[in-house]
Design goal:
The chain is an alpha/beta fold. The chain has two domains: about 140 residues, 3-Layer(aba) Sandwich (Rossmann fold); about 210 residues, Glycerate kinase, domain 2. The chain is about 35% helix and about 20% strand. Strands 3-4-5-6-9-10 form a six-stranded mixed beta sheet. The longest helix is centred in the last third of the chain and has 21 residues.
């Protein structure tokens, strides 16, 4: 029995790589009739770097979203002039000691890109998920030579505070190497930039913005898009995904040679997931929580949809499962998953459930039961 294991990270406890390795070891140790095809997956958020094999990893000192110096990793392929950057590694929420979107800046990301441009890197893949910022990329763009000024000719660089004051844009100091670079943006969300479904309303609360300030900040963002339109006669604010990473995607699309791709589509194509699905009988996928958001373009469900295209059985593993939400889906959508299992083995606190040692034990026990069932029914 051949099984593809392609499970997204359980955020805060287990990475996709750890999950794939654990399930593989369990099968090899106890179940002779089960062959695992392990696959590390990520659709642009945390763990994005792990899906790439033909690159060298570099760890460097960078500036995080709050201006603190931290260590972060990215991938490079000097022969082919390529680099892969995971935004969460540099300006992500997981990298800051405090949340303050009014000050949080993408500047550190721009510094990394500038350094790579100097090393003759010209082709960038950017995983957009997990940022701590809501600045439409003005910090990054400032590091790359764009200048943003307020009405008193003071330069505006960092965070929402700076974004709110922008009055004009000067591109005469642009980094020359940027003109020859291209960026592939990989986004795990499809939100546009502004409005109730935009970057500020949907994602800024988790970055520290209070709900009563959503409309005020959204107005700042809208004002910035009008200034951009007046100068360049372009408007990317309604492109799906332009709101990713607090509008960083919008900044890339507007000011650089960029294209944006849905994270799950990019990952499935890059890893040749469809070809691997054809070769197995069962697909095990999953993520930390199975709920309605899982069905809004996230990688595990897109993998499940692909599996059903080839009439493969799908097993979904999750930390928690929102049955009430799943029950609101129609039968055909729910039918994408043949069986779902929460790995929680008893009543526990959130901290206990997220503890890596406990999560490993829970996952091993749950997967053992899944494999036991497969063994029982293998001849039917």
């Amino acid at each position: 029995m051949k099984i593809l294991v392609a499970v997204n990270e359980f955020k805060g406890s287990l990475t996709s790589k750890e999950i794939a390795e654990l399930i593989s070891k369990l099968a090899n140790k106890r179940y002779k009739n089960i062959e695992i095809v392990p696959e590390v997956i990520a659709d642009g958020g945390d763990g994005f770097l792990d899906i790439f094999n033909d690159f060298s990893k570099k760890e460097v000192l960078v500036t995080n979203a709050m201006g603190e110096k931290i260590k972060a990793s990215y991938l490079v392929d000097y022969d082919n002039k390529k680099a892969v950057i995971e935004v969460a590694e540099i300006i992500g929420l997981k990298k800051v000691s405090e949340k303050n979107p009014y000050l949080a800046s993408t500047y550190g990301l721009g510094e990394v890109i500038k350094s790579l441009l100097q090393e003759n890197i010209r082709d960038f893949i950017i995983g957009l998920g997990g940022s701590a910022t809501n600045d439409c990329g003005i910090g990054m763009l400032s590091a790359l030579g764009y200048k943003f000024f307020d009405k008193n000719n003071n330069e505006c660089i960092h965070g929402i505070n700076a974004l709110s004051k922008i009055n004009r844009i000067d591109d005469s100091y642009l980094n020359e190497n940027l003109k020859n670079a291209k960026f592939t943006l990989v986004s795990d969300v499809e939100n546009i930039l502004c409005g109730q479904e935009g970057a500020t309303y949907v994602f800024s609360k988790q970055k520290g913005l209070k709900e009563e300030n959503f409309q005020i900040v959204d107005d700042y963002v809208n004002k910035f898009t009008r200034i951009v339109y007046n100068k360049y006669n372009t408007n990317y604010s309604n492109i799906l995904g332009s709101g990713a990473a607090g509008g960083l995607a919008y900044g890339f699309l507007t000011f650089t040679n960029s294209e944006i791709k849905k994270g799950s589509d990019f990952m499935i194509e890059y890893l040749k997931i469809e070809e691997k699905i054809k070769e197995v009988e069962i697909v095990i996928t999953g993520e930390g929580k199975l709920d309605l958001q899982s069905f809004m373009g996230k990688a595990p469900i897109e993998i499940a949809r692909l599996a059903k295209k080839y009439k493969k059985s799908v097993i979904f593993l999750a930390g928690t499962i929102s049955d009430k939400e799943i029950d609101t889906l129609n039968a055909s959508t729910k039918g994408i998953i043949d069986a779902s299992f929460s790995i929680l083995r008893g009543i526990s606190t959130l901290d206990e459930a997220m503890n890596k040692k406990i999560a490993i034990s829970n996952l091993e026990n749950t997967v053992s039961q899944v494999f036991n069932l497969l063994e029982i029914f293998k001849d039917e």
